[in-house]
Amino acid sequence: MNISSRQIDAFLALATQRNFTRAAAQCHLSQPAFSTLIRALEDALGLRLFDRSTRHVGLTAEGENFHASALRIRAEVDAALAAMRDAAQLRRGRVAIALLPSLAAGWLPGVLAGFHTQHPGVELDIADVLSEPCIDLVATGRADFALAAIRADTPELQAEPFCQDGFHLVCRTDHPLADQPLPSGPAQLRALAQWPFIHLARHSSVRQYLEAAFHPQAMRTLMEVEQLATVMGMVRAGLGISVVPTLTLFHFQHPDLATRPLALPGLTRQIYLVRRRDRGLSAAAQALHALVLRERPASG
């Protein structure tokens, strides 16, 4: 059975007007064309929907039953079309992104504030997680795209360079490293490695970059923690020093703390924008994706 939306509209017009001439005019059709639509609908259903006479047009019992369904169908189609128009015009929609906590806390809020001001009806779903969960969320379709420190180029995923992140020494302002000249190259590694370190956990990309840059120089690990706020508290208490990415320095803006940029071979963190190869972005996700690229952080 093939029933068109034009036939539904013609049926509803005639059910309301009870007159072929007025109903045809409402549908912007000639009366013969309108009558053809009604006959085709009745033929498709195998039922008479209207009683007709020279003076009266009325719904049959079957027509009364079909009327309720036709109203519901038209309402659902109208709602679907309105939702699509809203999505196309970014009045409605949903975007899910996953990204590193350092980006989510420092850089992203300003970007999202501008996006939300322009598109207040778009729902935002943010997952601030480490790189591997970021990639998993995109791979399983739970995030539209991700910003992670893993180059996830696979048959299912594509990764493009997004920004580069440098690293900074963090210590107390009264620490000897706060203002003394730092040597370069291996001598700098030795100068840092003699002090106790407050480290992020081994599964973090920050820790992995740091160990790769220091290898084979050993570091004096005093403790490992999960959160940068905890790193800040421990360094502020004088328990040790740390080396953190430039994009995380907002955590360490405190009068008791000093930060200094480091220039060590290999100690640069590459951030990638990751998305699925086989899935296009919704209108809302595409708009945020474009904004994220325009507002990407300056490489540290």
Describe this entry's structure for a reader:
It is a single chain. With 300 residues, the protein is an alpha/beta fold. It folds into 3 domains: 5-88, Winged helix-like DNA-binding domain superfamily/Winged helix DNA-binding domain (Arc Repressor Mutant, subunit A, Orthogonal Bundle), CATH 1.10.10; 93-164 and 270-294, Periplasmic binding protein-like II (D-Maltodextrin-Binding Protein, domain 2, 3-Layer(aba) Sandwich), CATH 3.40.190; 167-267, D-Maltodextrin-Binding Protein, domain 2, CATH 3.40.190. It contains 11 helices and 12 strands. A 5-stranded mixed β-sheet has the order 4-3-5-12-6, with helices on both faces. A 3-stranded antiparallel β-sheet has the order 10-7-11. It has a two-stranded antiparallel sheet with strand order 1-2. A hairpin with a 4-residue loop joins strand 1 (50-52) and strand 2. Helix 1 (5-17) crosses helix 2, helix 1 (5-17) crosses helix 4 (61-88) and helix 2 (20-26) packs across helix 3. The longest helix is centred in the first third of the chain and has 28 residues, at 61-88. It is rod-shaped, with a radius of gyration of 32 Å. It starts with a helix and ends in a 6-residue tail after the last helix.
